[in-house]
Amino acid sequence: WSLLGVGKRSAAYDQASARISRSVARLHESEWDLFCELKSGFLEVERIQAQSKAIGKLQRDFDAGIHTIAYPLHRAGRISERDWNTVRVVVDRLTISLEELRTRRQTAMNRLKKFIGLRPEHEVEFVLSGSGLAPSAWNEEEIRTSAIDRRWDLQILLAEYEATEQKLRYEVAAQYPDIIIGPLFRFGSAGNVFGGALSLELPDPRTASARIKAADAERSMTRHLIEERLLTIQHQIRNSHLALKQKTSTTSTWKNRMLPRVAETSKISRSTLKLKPDAIGVVVHSFMEFFNATEEYWKQEQERRDALTHLERSAGYPLFQLD
Quick one: 168 exposed, middle or buried, by C-beta within 10 A (0-12, 13-18, 19+)? Predict the structure, then answer.
């Protein structure tokens, strides 16, 4: 039993507790990283499926509104070979686009299967729902405040700081002499002897001072890392929040203004094809603008979702839900 080293034992116990807290925080950080990867994967699959559906509708509209009309006109010699080749180019572009989306969907599905422990050949269908992808009014200050309590990388550093604090306490307590009392057992031919032992620990003042300085420097370095991480979190959330606002605005413009406008123009031009076969070039050009605008919209939507998931990663906790 230690008579004078109570503070040393207490510091050693608290240091061990802080290290356990650090290990637990690291486990939670790994779980959060996995959660973010799965969520990002689900969103990617859902977006590709939605984009494939939109491009598939374009393909059907082109086939019904242009291709099926242009083919007999071409056979009858009423449109030029050049215009017919333009029609074929659009057909090929639509087909290639859908094939690329199928390949990307399969790649995203295999990535998800790997995360959840399934083989690529395992047949599975992911069905997603949720209402968290609409433009939201998340407050940057609220997210930043919550992130301080929920970012596991910060919690790891705080636990590390607590461990260095207790290590410094231990080294300060260990510089003083300590009296230790313990049992004594001696066995021999003359008989067994039971008693007690008294020992005195006298630490070297020079090495004790060096250990205290080293522990204090380690604590100061950890404090500096915490301050740096807090600044990094603030910058990450500010930049991610700004990027999300910009991407949401751009996507909304494409969805509500630009895409409907070119869609309506393409629809009107297709309606005149039967009456004016020589307008096939204008009709196809109008449809290509619609097709290009659709692809651009989904590109912007992907960037918006990337900005949303990046903000969620920066926050350290779920900002929207998927079922």
Answer: buried
